[in-house]
Design goal:
Oligomer: single chain
Keywords: Kinase, Transferase
Number of helices: 9
InterPro entries: DhaK_L_YcgS, DhaL_dom, DhaL_dom_sf, Dihydroxyacetone_Kinase
Bound molecules: adenosine-5'-diphosphate, magnesium ion
Radius of gyration: 16 Å
Number of domains: 1
CATH superfamily: DhaL domain
Shape: globular
Strand order of the largest sheet: 1-2
Largest sheet: 2 strands, antiparallel
Strand content: under 5%
Protein name: Dihydroxyacetone kinase DhaL subunit
CATH class: Mainly Alpha
GO molecular function: kinase activity
Distance between the termini: 13 Å
CATH architecture: Alpha Horseshoe
Length: 211
């Protein structure tokens, strides 16, 4: 049964940087429809800096990797998403502090704490057309899989499927948080950029763990 370890945590950061860069224009296009056309640029800048930081360090535990990601996102990414993802990784890193390995149960707990941090900061509820709509069903799937005693990879695979569904389900929604909410009803019919980046981040995590 595979675990997340420090090497894989670093690979996660590499994969996130790569997948965000590959989807930079796409994320910016989504944000141009209902926001200010900077989500791809913000995310790419943040994860480029995060990877630089992580590559230049040695780590003894998984928490420390995600803590560096969190601090970098908070300090380099402006707008809504920087502090929100920064908080996600910070809260997750606190749960993973001192851990050399994480199994599905611990990873689900860490991501649950991360999501709670996002909700505490951004006050978005499910259905408000934000990253919360992709993260919530994904983390619920992780928790359900952990409860069933499934392997880490299987849990992540299910979480990715649910994140994708949550992302697509944002299309008809009317935004109630963030810039897109300024559009009111006109925000309907567009996929949320932040829900999309959350799906991509989870996809990168899956790939780093061989899912
Ligand atoms: P900005 O809107 O400040 O330009 P970004 O474009 O980088 O920031 O990020 C926009 C994304 O942030 C949205 O698509 C949405 O998913 C997410 N977001 C915005 N406000 C909130 C919030 N209050 N709670 C959760 N997510 C939010
Ligand atoms: Mg924006
Ligand atoms: Mg902006």
């Amino acid at each position: 049964n595979e675990h997340l370890d420090v090497t894989k945590a670093v690979a996660i950061v590499e994969n996130i940087k790569e997948i965000i860069d590959a989807n930079k224009e796409f994320l910016t296009k989504l944000d141009s429809a209902i926001g200010d056309a900077d989500h791809g640029i913000n995310m790419s800048r943040g994860f480029t800096k995060a990877l630089e930081k992580v590559r230049n360090n040695q780590y003894n535990d998984i928490g420390a990797v995600f803590k560096d990601v969190a601090m970098t996102l908070m300090s380099t990414v402006g707008g809504a998403a920087g502090p929100l993802y920064g908080t996600f990784f910070m809260r997750a890193s606190m749960k993973l502090a001192g851990q050399k390995e994480a199994d599905l149960t611990l990873l689900a707990q860490a991501f649950r704490e991360g999501l709670q941090g996002v909700v505490a900061l951004g006050k978005a509820q499910l259905g408000d057309k934000t990253m919360v709509d992709a993260l919530t069903p994904a983390i619920e799937a992780l928790e359900a899989a952990a409860k069933q005693g499934l392997p880490l990879k299987e849990g992540l695979k299910r979480a990715l499927d649910m994140a994708e569904k949550g992302m697509k389900d944002t299309i008809p929604l009317v935004a109630r948080k963030g810039r897109a909410s300024y559009l009111g009803e006109r925000s309907a019919g567009h996929q949320d950029p932040g829900a999309t980046s959350s799906y991509l981040i989870l996809k990168a995590i899956c790939e780093a763990l061989g899912v």
